[in-house]
Hints:
The complex is a heterodimer of chains A (113) and B (115). In chain A, 0% of the residues lie in helices and 57% in strands.
Amino acid sequence: KQEVTQIPAALSVPEGENLVLNCSFTDSAIYNLQWFRQDPGKGLTSLLLIQSSQREQTSGRLNASLDKSSGRSTLYIAASQPGDSATYLCAVNLSSNTGKLIFGQGTTLQVKP
Amino acid sequence: EAGVAQSPRYKIIEKRQSVAFWCNPISGHATLYWYQQILGQGPKLLIQFQNNGVVDDSQLPKDRFSAERLKGVDSTLKIQPAKLEDSAVYLCASSSGSLSTDTQYFGPGTRLTVL
């Protein structure tokens, strides 16, 4: 059974700091991995999607890496801003022809001005 | 483009009562998902529809939960009777297709409290 774990559960950093969020999964037979952002009282927003054949994806100040063999992914946020404060969730997809996602429990990030 | 709409946003009921949630996906999206997110956990897929057919309901507690998507557009999720452990946020998402690479767009969720 696939399990997804995110460490730490919460993180507080000063503005401007670079930071890394971690995600691990127990079964390396994934099709892709996604990172989402969740703001309080709002739904999830997809940030980055990495296919199993890829090593990383970048969008602006965000960079996500994937090491399928070791069951790990990281989300790197450069020059953090207070607006980055949110909960970040990673999710894996086990098949190409289904949208079923298995989520980690999330890391709640607070960026202090 | 309008996003995924859900109602109500909040609901408080007593255990053993019934409750229903409504979701209106993005126009033209064939695939609709219902997720349950318990406080401090990530969302868990309850059911996936492709048009008005069920693709995956393996994690739906069918003794108390039911869902339908009439005419392949709006969907309702019902709980009857509710238990304390059903307290959670219920998220609806939609995507244009059912492939893993099709972006899922999430609604704001319905927060259910069962007393």
